Amino acid sequence: MITCHVRYEIDPEQIDAFERFATRWMELVNQHRGVHHGYFLPAEGASDVAYALFSFPSLAEYLLTPGQPQPRGQSRNQEEHEPQAHDR
């Protein structure tokens, strides 16, 4: 199993866009045999940082997920699968 830890810096003016992105990303991870463990935000104080954790059964399955780096010589159409972070 491989678990990924992602750190986000959220633009306070784009909270709604981040919520849409986060919701879509959770759906995509689950659709591609992963488990999204959620987003974690500070409980107190002002902060623009959020963290996400998601896991896949193996490194090979993670690498087959749209948006991940591919081994040399391999490619695929990623655009139809990736969430758009710039949706505003």
Describe this structure in words.
With about 90 residues, the protein is of the alpha+beta class. It has one domain. Helix content is about 25%, strand content about 25%. It has helices at about 15-30, 60-65; strands at about 1-10, 35-40, 50-55. Strands 1-3-2 form a 3-stranded antiparallel sheet. The model is unreliable at about 75-88 (pLDDT under 50).
The total count of strands amounts to 3
* Total count of helical runs of at least 4 residues: 2
| Pattern of helices and strands | EHEEH
What's the gyration radius in Å? 14 Å
Mean pLDDT across all residues, rounded? 77
Q: What composes the largest sheet?
A: 3 strands, antiparallel
Described by the principal axes of the CA atoms, the overall outline is: elongated
Summed up, the domain count is 1
What does the oligomeric state look like here?
Answer: single chain
The unreliable regions are 74-88
Give the helix/strand class: alpha+beta
Q: How far is the N terminus from the C terminus?
A: 34 Å
Residue share in helix: 25-40%
Strand order of the largest sheet: 1-3-2
